[in-house]
Specification:
ATP binds at residues 203-210. GO terms for molecular function: 3'-5' DNA helicase activity; ATP binding; DNA binding; hydrolase activity. It comes from Aeromicrobium endophyticum. The chain is α/β, with parallel strands linked by helices. Among the domains are: 3-168, no CATH class; 557-702, P-loop containing nucleotide triphosphate hydrolases (Rossmann fold), CATH 3.40.50.300. It is built from 29 helices and 21 strands. Helix 5 packs across helix 6 (209-223) and helix 21 (499-508) runs parallel beside helix 22. It binds adenosine-5'-triphosphate (ATP). Adenosine-5'-triphosphate (ATP) binds at residues 164, 167-168, 179, 182-184, 187, 203, 205-211, 519, 522, 553-554, 653, 655, 683. Residues 164, 167-168, 179, 182-184, 187, 203, 205-211, 519, 522, 553-554, 653, 655, 683 line the site of adenosine-5'-triphosphate.
Length: 703
C-alpha cells in the first residue's frame, strides 16, 4: 500500500468520527436555538418574573449558540492513541453524545493536557499523537508524532512530518490564528499556570508569547468561568492594527466575552491611534506628569470668574479672588472636584452670610438668606461658571495653556515645547489616554443625577431641566470609574508601557490576576527603570510567576541571525530565542542613491510579493512613512490586502511573510530606543527580508 493510500484511508476513517461529532454539535445548536425561541415566548407572559427568567434563559442560550458557532471551524483537531488502544479526541470545545458519553474533550480540560505535555521522553501513556488538519468540517490531512514506538501495535499507521512544521510554513494572512492543535510543552505550561498574582511570559521574538497569552485567557475562562466572565477579562495590546490582528483567536476558541483594547482605547469614549513624536511621548509617559495633572485638575477652568458681587437688602456682598481661592481649596480638601460640585453652593452661601451686616437681613435670619440666595439666578449662574462639573477631556484641553504656570521645573524647556506642539492637535494621542484617565480619577464623578427635583443638587434648581440633563449626559460619555475593574488583565508588549500607562492599567487590575507578556529587547520605552517602578506599583505586591518561551517559531534562522546582532546593540544581554527553521534565503541589503530610494523600495516589495504567497510589509521611519505610503498607493492597491506600509512602532506584535525595511539608519536614529525598534522590524518577517537604505551605518555597526 502506498503512503498516499494509507494517508487517504486514515483521513476517511477520521472523517467518519468527525462527522459524528458535527452531528452532535448541530443537535446542541438546535437545542440552544429552540431555547432562545422559548425564552422569547416567556417574555410574552408579561409579568416581571417572566421577563427576568426570559432574559437569563435567552442570554445563556445565545451564549451557548455563539460558542458553538465560533468553534465550528476545525472543531476536532487532535487524537491521542493510548497504550491500552483507547482513543481520545481533542477539540475546541467539549461535545458529548446522546448518552452523555464524551465524544470530544475540550482542549482546556485536564484530560486534554497530555495532548500537549506528552513527549517521546515522557509519553505518559500516549503512543501516537495525531493532529487532524481540517478545512471547516472536512479532514484534509493528518500529521502524527509517534511518542512510544516500543509499545505501539504493529498495525499503527504514522503519517506526516509533524504538525508543527506544517503549520509554521503556511503563508501568513492578515490575522493571527489559534495554535490550539500544535501548542508546545513549554507553552502549555504557561497557558495552564494557575491564576494567582501575576504570570509573566517572556522570551524573544516569535516565541508565541502573544498566542500563548490568548490561549491562556481562554483557559482561565474555562477553568473559572463564573469569576472571569462576571469580573471580565481585559486584553490590552499596543495598537489598533495589532488588536485587529489578534481579534479572531479567542472567538475561534469559543470565547466571545473578552474585552480587547489597544492602549489608545483603554478609556471608554476615546479612540486614539496616533503616536506622539519621541520627546513629547517620553514626557507624557513619565510619572513626572502626575504632579502637573493633579494641579491642572484642581485649577479653575480658563475664563472662570474671579469675583462675585451680590446685592442683598442693605449689603453689598463680595467674594474676591483670594477669598474664592480659599473656598476652592476648602472644597477640594473635602472631596474630588466633581464630587464637591454639590457642596459648592453651601460653601459660597456660608461665606456670603458671614459678610451680612444689614439689620433687615439679620433679623430675617440665615435660613431666609440661604433660601433667597440659592434660588436666585444670579447666584446659580455664578456657581455654574465658578464650579462647573468638568469632563476630564475638558481639563486635558487646557493643558497647553496651564503647563508653563503649573509645571515649573518639572519639565525641560524642550519638553514643554514638544508637549505644547503635540497638544495643538485637537484629538488625544495614544500617549494622552493615560493622562485623561489620570484626570478622570482626579476629578471624580458627579453624584448620580436624580429624576426627583427635590433630591437634585440645590444649585440646579432654577435651571432649565434640559440644560442640566445635557451637561450630565455629556459628563457620562465617560464610563463610571467604578466600572473600570476587571478580574483578569492581560497586557501584551508590556515592555513598551510607560509609567503613566502602567498607572492606567493598574487601576483596572487592582483586584485582578494578571498575565504580562513582554521582551525587554523589543522595548520602545526609553526609561526602563522608571517603568519598572510603575509596574511594581501597579501590581501592588502581587506574587509573580515567570515563564520563558525559548523557540522562535516565526523567523527563518537566516533572518534571526541578522536581527540578533541588532538586538545586541539595542540592549545589553538580549533574551535571544532559538530559530530552527532554515529556508536557504539570506536577507538582502541594498544601498542606493537618495533619489532612487522609493523606486528601490518599490522594486524590493514587488520582488518579495512575487516570491511569497502571503502578506508583505514595507516599513519606514515615522518621519517618512506617510510620504512613502502615498508613493506606493498604486502598489498597495494592486496587491489588495497583501501589502501594507507601516512605521516601526506599528509593526509591534505583527508578522508578515516578507518585509522590506526602508532606511534602517532612519529607524535607529529616530529615538534612543531606535535600535530596539529596528530589531522589532527585522523580526517581523517569516520568510524573506530586504533592507533598502541610502546609508548603511547600522550594518557597519553590527559587522
Ligand atoms: N505552538 C505553535 N504552533 C504553531 N505556531 C506557533 C506556535 N507558537 C507560536 N506559533 C506562531 O509563531 C508566530 C509568533 O507567535 P507570536 O506572535 O505569539 O510570538 P511573540 O512571542 O508574541 O512575538 P513578538 O514578541 O515578536 O511579538 C505566530 O505565527 C504563531 O502563530
Amino acid at each position: 500500500m502506498s503512503s498516499d493510500n494509507a494517508a487517504q484511508r486514515e483521513i476517511e476513517a477520521e472523517q467518519s468520527y468527525v462527522d459524528m461529532v458535527y452531528e452532535r454539535l448541530d443537535a446542541s445548536a438546535k437545542v440552544a436555538q429552540s431555547l432562545v425561541v422559548e425564552g422569547m415566548a416567556r417574555g410574552h407572559v408579561g409579568n416581571e418574573g417572566g421577563l427576568v427568567e426570559r432574559d437569563a434563559m435567552v442570554f445563556q442560550a445565545q451564549r451557548r449558540l455563539s460558542a458553538l458557532n465560533a468553534a465550528h471551524d476545525g472543531l476536532v483537531f487532535g487524537r491521542l492513541t493510548m497504550i491500552d488502544g483507547d482513543s481520545r479526541y481533542i477539540g475546541r470545545i467539549g461535545v458529548r453524545d446522546a448518552d452523555r458519553e464524551i465524544l470530544l474533550v475540550d482542549w482546556r480540560a485536564p484530560a486534554a493536557a497530555i495532548f500537549y505535555q506528552a513527549t517521546a521522553q515522557e509519553p505518559a501513556g500516549v503512543v501516537r499523537r495525531r493532529v487532524l488538519r481540517c478545512s471547516n468540517d472536512q479532514v484534509i490531512g493528518v500529521e502524527d508524532d509517534l511518542l512510544d514506538g516500543e509499545n505501539a501495535p504493529d498495525d499503527l499507521v504514522v503519517i506526516g512530518e509533524g504538525a508543527l512544521l506544517a503549520s509554521l510554513t503556511r503563508a501568513r494572512d492578515s490575522t493571527m490564528h489559534s495554535v490550539v492543535a500544535t501548542i508546545q510543552k513549554e507553552q502549555d505550561e504557561a497557558i495552564r499556570a494557575p491564576s494567582r498574582g501575576a504570570t509573566t511570559i517572556g522570551g524573544g521574538p516569535g516565541t508565541g508569547k502573544t498566542v500563548v497569552a490568548l490561549h491562556r485567557a481562554a483557559y482561565l475562562l474555562y477553568t473559572d468561568r463564573r469569576r472571569f466572565e462576571s469580573g471580565g477579562v481585559l486584553v490590552v495590546g499596543p495598537s489598533n492594527v495589532f488588536m485587529s490582528y489578534i481579534e479572531r483567536v479567542l472567538p475561534s476558541l469559543g470565547e466571545t466575552s473578552v474585552t480587547l483594547r489597544s492602549l489608545g482605547e483603554v478609556v471608554d469614549g476615546i479612540r486614539a491611534g496616533r503616536h506622539d513624536e519621541p520627546v513629547a511621548a517620553a514626557a507624557k509617559g513619565s510619572s513626572r506628569m502626575t504632579g502637573f495633572l493633579a494641579k491642572a485638575a484642581a485649577a479653575p477652568m480658563p475664563g472662570a470668574p474671579t469675583e462675585f458681587r451680590y446685592f442683598f437688602k442693605d449689603d453689598v456682598l463680595r467674594l474676591d479672588a483670594a477669598q474664592l481661592d480659599k473656598l476652592r481649596r476648602q472644597l477640594l480638601a473635602g472631596a474630588k472636584r466633581n464630587r464637591a460640585y454639590a457642596q459648592a453652593p453651601a460653601v459660597l452661601v456660608e461665606a456670603l452670610w458671614r459678610q451680612v451686616r444689614g439689620e433687615r437681613a439679620l433679623e430675617k435670619g440665615r435660613d431666609d438668606f440661604v433660601e433667597i440666595v440659592t434660588t436666585d439666578d444670579r447666584f446659580v449662574d455664578f456657581v455654574e461658571q465658578w464650579w462647573p462639573p468638568v469632563e476630564p477631556i475638558e481639563i486635558w484641553r487646557t493643558l497647553p495653556d496651564v503647563i508653563d504656570r503649573l509645571s515649573q521645573g518639572t519639565f525641560s524647556r524642550v519638553e514643554v515645547e514638544a508637549l505644547k506642539a503635540s497638544w495643538a492637535a485637537s484629538e488625544p494621542s495614544i500617549q494622552d489616554v493615560p493622562l485623561v484617565d489620570e484626570l478622570r480619577y482626579l476629578v471624580g464623578e458627579l453624584p448620580e443625577a436624580t429624576d426627583d427635583e427635590d433630591e437634585a443638587p440645590k444649585q440646579l434648581m432654577s435651571f432649565e431641566r434640559r440644560e442640566r440633563e445635557e451637561r450630565v449626559d455629556r459628563f457620562r460619555s465617560t464610563q463610571s470609574i467604578e466600572d473600570d475593574g476587571f478580574a483578569h488583565v492581560l497586557v501584551d508588549e508590556a515592555q513598551d508601557l510607560s509609567p503613566m500607562q502602567w498607572r492606567m492599567l493598574g487601576r483596572r487590575g487592582r483586584h485582578a490576576s494578571w498575565t504580562i507578556v513582554g521582551d525587554e529587547a523589543q522595548s520602545s520605552w526609553p526609561h526602563p527603570r522608571e517603568s519598572a517602578a510603575a509596574r511594581k506599583a501597579a501590581l501592588d505586591g502581587k506574587p509573580e510567576h515567570a515563564f520563558r518561551l525559548s523557540t522562535n517559531y516565526r523567523n527563518s534562522a537566516e533572518i534571526y541571525e541578522l536581527a540578533a546582532k541588532v538586538a545586541a546593540v539595542g540592549v545589553a544581554d538580549p533574551d535571544l530565542a532559538d530559530a530552527v527553521r532554515r529556508t536557504g534565503e539570506e536577507p538582502r541589503q541594498h544601498v542606493v542613491e537618495p533619489g532612487s530610494l522609493v523606486d528601490a523600495a518599490r522594486d524590493a516589495a514587488r520582488d518579495i510579493l512575487g516570491r511569497v504567497e502571503g502578506t508583505v510589509a514595507v516599513v519606514a521611519p515615522r518621519a517618512s512613512v506617510e510620504r512613502l505610503r502615498a508613493d506606493l498607493t498604486d502598489l498597495v492597491a494592486e496587491h489588495d490586502g497583501r501589502l501594507r506600509v507601516l512605521d516601526g512602532l506599528d509593526t509591534k506584535g505583527l508578522e508578515f511573510d516578507g518585509v522590506v525595511v526602508v532606511e534602517p539608519d532612519g529607524i535607529t536614529d529616530e529615538s534612543s530606543a531606535g535600535w530596539r525598534t529596528l530589531y522589532v522590524v527585522l523580526t517581523r518577517a517569516t520568510q524573506l527580508l530586504t533592507t533598502v537604505g541610502t546609508t548603511e551605518r547600522w550594518r557597519q555597526r553590527i559587522s
